Amino acid sequence: MIGTTDIIITIGYILLIVGIGLWTGLRKKTAGGEGSGAYFLAGKTLRWPMIGLALFATNISCLHLVSLAQSGFDAGLLNGNFEWMAAFTLILLALFFVPFYIRSGVATLPDFLERRYNRACRDWLAFVSIVSAIIIHIAFSFLAGGIVLETLFGIDMYASIIVIAALTGLYTIVGGLRAVVVTESIQSIVLIAGAVIITVAAWNKMGGWQPMEAVLADHNALDKLSMMRPMGDASGMSWMAVFLGYPVLGIWYWCADQTIVQRVLGAKDENHARVGSLFCGFIKILPVFIFVLPGLFAWTLYKSGGLDVSALMHTSADGTQTLDSKGIYTLMITQLLPSGLIGVLVAALLSGLMSQIAGALNSIATLASFDLYKRFKPDTTDVVLVKVGRWSSGVALLLSIALLPLLNRYQSLFEGINDVIAHIAPPITCVFLLGIFWKGASARSAQLTLWLGSALGAAVYALNKLAPGNLLGGIPFMMMAFYLFLACVVMQVVFSFVYPVVHTEQSAALYWRSIREPLAGKGWAGFGNYKFLSLLLLLAMGALYWVFR
């Protein structure tokens, strides 16, 4: 439980964000109407700093802060790979995907798939994108946020979730993408500041890096500092699993998921879209140090007697005591921070929660309006499209809350999310990659790969959950994602020969003739050039992986 001062800070922050979101949306209305382009894509006026911060805020939620700290406590820096590997996929987004998205002027990624392939591909991706946004971006985030708020405030988890859902939905539904991006930019700064505060507090309590290493050495746990684990590692996250499996998840998430890419689609121009994506790549270096590392500090503090984890100990029926590390972040907040700063940290947690939910709701509104409703009523006015989007957001909120009891069964929410993504992503990653890099990828082949690949992923997921002792049950989810991706690639290549490609005028312009073609654009001069920034980010990530290998 936390004090009155911290409660006031928390409530004040929530009201501030809601007020800014509503003011931004209503100001846009009075300034010049509310067309669908302004509502869903912010009138294509977004600049690179706002894009980069919004991408980061949409990605990082309360779930990430809580779960990455838990993973740091349990396994060390290992799950930081999900953050650092994102930098490589953001480079792919900036160099190879952004030009097609911006030049084609699409409002949604399903729209892009229709132009490259056919209408069936668009329909399927729109459906999968809405479902994944409800489950992955909203429901899981609600669950993590509800657990934290219940622990800190003693409020019923579902009651706190409903209040946050109502407030976030209010400014998102009223203000559209511009309200989302403006509030996300603010929330990114608050979230990073809060994470830095808890990191500094844990660092000071531990006494720095060397005392932490000494405790790790005393417990034969120096491998917790390694990002690259050997083949056959018990975690299932060997270096091979990371480098083969993550790109399958990452390309879908960062390059082909509407919730994420919508910030790029609202860019002022191609350069702002590219540099904004790369800016996010640089920001993604931080989470290992400010989200994961505090959890590792918590483990060494626990082992050295500097952190009381008795509140997390549970006694089973046979008298055995086990440590449930899901609440470690909340424990750190209450034990390492003074009054006042606790309120700031809670505000940071709420920043992550509200920003991801807001981003997902806006994307669902866009998909439901442009890719589903407008298909059946192509002459729909902008006013009606906006109304459909708002109603869709409201329904999505209700569905996500209804899913909470089911998703609460996962022991680790972070692993639960990635397990789901590993079975959704492979066919989508496949059709996007082959679509932009291979002239011969046909519309019929993409359609069948999306259908059959999704069915295969769902079947494997169900089999592993219903019969965990089967032959596939021992395959780590990262490697499973890679194997499913390979199966999808084989499917699409074979089907492309069975059903040869017949390009339309649009699709003929939506694949790269050579690897050099997307790099032909000069970009901005100086340090803001996207080629220079891409190379700098690659070198930075290479150096970091060398240090923490």
From TrEMBL:
Stated membrane topology is: Multi-pass membrane protein
Q: Which InterPro entries match?
A: Na/Glc_symporter_sf (IPR038377), Na/solute_symporter (IPR001734)
Residues annotated as transmembrane: 6-26, 46-69, 84-103, 124-149, 155-174, 186-203, 236-255, 276-302, 328-350, 388-408, 420-438, 444-463, 475-502, 530-548
A Pfam match: SSF
**Keyword set, alphabetical order:** Membrane, Transmembrane, Transmembrane helix
The cross-references to Gene3D superfamilies, in alphabetical order and at most eight, read: Sodium/glucose cotransporter
Cellular localization per UniProt:
Membrane
The leader peptide range reads none
Q: Which residues form a coiled coil?
A: none
Q: Does the keyword Transmembrane helix apply?
A: yes
Keyword set includes Membrane: yes
Extract the CDD domains matched here.
Answer: SLC5sbd_SGLT1-like (cd10329)
Q: Which family does it belong to?
A: Belongs to the sodium:solute symporter (SSF) (TC 2.A.21) family.
UniProt protein name: Sodium:solute symporter
Organism field: Chitinophaga pollutisoli
